[in-house]
Amino acid sequence: MAESIYLFKRTTKILTPELFTKMAAQMNIKEKPAETDEALFISDGTRSLAFARPCATFAGLLFFADQSVAWGECAKKPVSEARARGWAEDLLKKFDLTPKGGDDKRIRLDFGLEAFQSEAVVFNGKERRRVKAKTDVMANIYLNGVPVVGPRGKVRKIFKETERPVMVHAGLWEGLNVFEERELVREHDVVAAVRQGLTRREECGKRPYDVREVRLVYFADEFRGGPDLLAPEYHVEVELRDPQQTGKEQIQGPRQVVRLRAYR
Amino acid sequence: MAKEVGIEWVNTYDCLNQLTHEHEDAGGFYDELVNHDGWVGSFNWGNGAAWEQDFKRPDKGGTANLWVDTAAFVYFTGHGSPWGFYFRCDVPDDNLIECDHYTGPTNGDLRLGNDDLEWLALEVCNTLQLDAILNGTNLDVFDRWAESFQGMHTICSFTTVSLDLATPGRYFAVYLDGRWPLVLFGIPEWMIGRFPLKVIDAWFAMTSLVQPAPYEAAVLYDNTQGTDTQNDYIWDHGHVSTDPRRGAANWFSWTWIPHAC
Fold this sequence. Notes:
The complex is a heterodimer of chains A (264) and B (261). Chain A is 14% helix and 43% strand. Chain A has 3 helices and 14 strands. Chain A has helices at 17-26, 81-94, 187-198; strands at 4-11, 34-35, 39-43, 47-52, 61-66, 109-123, 128-143, 146-149, 154-159, 165-171, 175-183, 209-219, 229-240, 255-261. In chain A, strands 1, 2, 3, 4, 5, 6, 7, 8, 9, 10, 11, 12, 13 and 14 form a 14-stranded mixed β-sheet that branches. The chains are: A mainly beta (264), B alpha/beta (261). At the A-B interface, strand 3, strand 4, strand 5, strand 6 and strand 7 of A face strand 4, strand 8, helix 4, helix 6 and strand 12 of B.
């Protein structure tokens, strides 16, 4: 019997201007927000915060940018992972932004934040020096064990030397319902379809590429009207043999990710 | 100051697998800057009209001095690898803009910034991967690309694969010219104005917006005494560093910094 998978319908949080203004104050912005049907926005010229309301293209996306610090500059002493993660968790809890799975037993949502310090490498013409450049926070989100990815299914925050982030991208939902139960396309069939698509007529039987990885994900894409769905898809990474390669050594060739719908 | 933008893109590869959205991707970057930010569109070459020669240095038979190095910002999208980025096989000069050490220690094709180019965005896979093995030797990102910087400020690209999407170019451009509150969120410009991001910040913001985990973007920028390319905005939207020139001071450095999408 074929395995099945759920498609979920998501609902977006309704954020009031009052709550949004409080959130902005948390980011050190003490201005009045601009408001349209689609979004809330507030800025002091250096720091800007925006939230996309339901039915906007990026419905549910909270974005913050602080231009007082260059994100690509190596921080002298990036804030610790624990403090960055703590700040990020507090923000989500305080403003009730953490995604919910609801009471439906068919929905198992796992959500957690992880923090890590990213290293830059600086080269002076002679030596390479690894330096801690920033502290990153990202969310791991799983629905029934399948990772959720995409612009409206992630949390990304960059911290430099203080506990306040310089960038926040939080694309989350407030509620989820099961929309449909569909047949899951088998990984084997997906790989076969990709192989068939990449096979060249003149090279029948030869494979000038390798399938490196197959990932099943829920892709939280832009909202384009209709039901706001979280639907599963496969990301198949293939590597084409380096076309310049003449020797026996196998070297890394150009890679590509093929996206395929994961349900029938 | 040359507020000129150029793009090249390839969908219809003849020697590699075809791509789908590269014309929309690069076209979105070009259209945003030309139609909404007063940039001059220098060139928009796609598929068979996108030539490797346009990026290649003149002393290797290329015409970068007539094309890529005449614009301030150039955006390429197509296939990439640690060794470079790819064109069709039937275009001049060949199909790969190769890095240094690929066919010879100093045989890389890119030597940019002698004229106008400040920023090069390569919306391709793996070009800024930190390490890559060739003939049993690790060639890191500096071995491969440091010599490309001849006054150029920044290369924006990826260390991993990235999805073939229609929107990265446009979204990158709206973060650069400050129209992102309108284009991404729907707040009219007349209500609030524009809020441009620095070039590197815009790349990080865009890659987080459109590319899923676990993919990783990166930038490579250079500096010397008196320059601060990490603080660059695009022209007319804030500070732009002077060009980092080798030999202008007793130090010169390149910085590679990754960004988890």
